[in-house]
Amino acid sequence: MTEPLRVLVADDQTLVRTGFRLILGADGIDVVGEATNGIEAVAGVRRTRPDVVLMDVRMPGMDGLEATRRILADRGAPDPVRAEGAPLPDSPRVIILTTFDLDRYVYAALSAGASGFLLKDVTPEQLTAAVRTVRTGDALLAPAITRRLVQRFTRRGSDTATLHRDLASLTPRELEVFGLLARGLSNAELATRLHLAEATVKTHVARILAKLGLRDRVQAVIVAYETGLVSAGVHEDVQRPTGRAG
Length: 246
Description:
Radius of gyration: 18 Å
CATH architecture of the largest domain: 3-Layer(aba) Sandwich
Number of strands: 5
Order of helices and strands: EHEHEHEHEHHHHHHH
Number of helices: 11
Largest sheet: 5 strands, parallel
CATH class of the largest domain: Alpha Beta
Shape: globular
């Protein structure tokens, strides 16, 4: 029997935490901890080992952005609870909660390794679907939101050339998959578009993430826009990195 998903909810509003707990519990998802600020969130993650963290951006003491950085930095650190200081398991996926569409903190959080963001007025169905989606590493941000977010906050400059060189490890097919993935296509949609088996698409996506050292598809989207592989206003043509052959 598959173990239920384990979630920690970090928000300074009691009603928000209670509402999320009830919604997730009704869908068979366990809320294993709650936190009212970033400090409690970091401690709660270390104590309860959730699969997913729902993280508010604006909290007293330590905000959600700093808490996200610390939680993701814990990956592979010694676990004080387990025998002989064994390393912590993979860090949880973090979903940023915000009341502001295109909040500057959201882009910063995604760049730091968060797996996506949700507005707090999501429906119960959207909330539970998001938790299950990020746990599998699939895309969470809608293509339109992604384009607006990255177009507004991506900084282009000297770092771009370095990132271009990173893409040289990808094969032509992987570049094609990467460009479509960056527009928010699911594995099923990629399979249909490229006339491939879905299992083959999953293999391509896994190799892309591994070669580029990325946690999930959301980070892949950011890198694709930052490197110029995909342009915010371009919907069909994938741009090849400078200096790459054929």
